Amino acid sequence: MDGEVTVALIGGVGALVGALLGGAATVWTAKEQGRMAVQTALHTARSTYLGPLDTARRSAQREVFAAFLTVSQEWARSAEPAAEAARRWDADVGGLLDECITEGRAYTGLNTELRQHWRRTIDRCGTTQRLTEAVQHVLLEAAGTDVARAAQNVEQHARRLASLLHGAGETQLRDQDGVSTDDPSNHVPPSPERSPNQLGALKEAIEAFTWTAAAHLNTRDANNGPDTSSSA
What we know:
It is elongated and about 95 Å long. Helices cover about 75% and strands about 0% of the residues. A two-stranded antiparallel sheet has the order 1-2. It has 5 helices and 2 strands; from the N terminus they run ααααββα. By secondary structure, it is mainly alpha-helical. The N and C termini lie far apart (about 75 Å). The protein has helices at about 5-105, 110-125, 130-140, 145-165, 195-225, and strands at about 170-175, 185-190.
């Protein structure tokens, strides 16, 4: 093959490759521009749709968080006299045990009238059912968030306090197999401060929920859109 033909062929191939590459670039550019246009349109549509939806969701969360806070604070306030009654009941039992040991007489517990008095005072605070229901609403609106965990923490503290209130005045036997349960030295007296201390822990958990819920809502408002830091 002579030089002129070789040059012509090489030149033709180069032109063909250039045309193909140029055409491919044009097609790719068109596709990319089309993809970006579609993404922009989808983003605009999503923002238009989710904006009001997210605003409504934030409003619903505020209502649920406020309702939970109200219920938990009300129960904590009602538990204050109950915790004091439990403290005095536990203290009375401890004092009676000391007297029985000192005087060498059997322990038969506080008299019925005094036990009924403390029990009536404790029972006035009611159960934690409303608080548990309020927690479920928080979980529905903010599942997987710090707010939901803070609400569950409040419920757990309330349940612990309710358990202590229910067990006020009860002692623990040092020797479960002991044949004489009326032996005062075989009884471990209850701690008078256990219910008040748990009430304090409950109040701290409620305060922590308040700050956590406020931070969650403020973050969403500042972003003016879905909070991407959590699942809700």
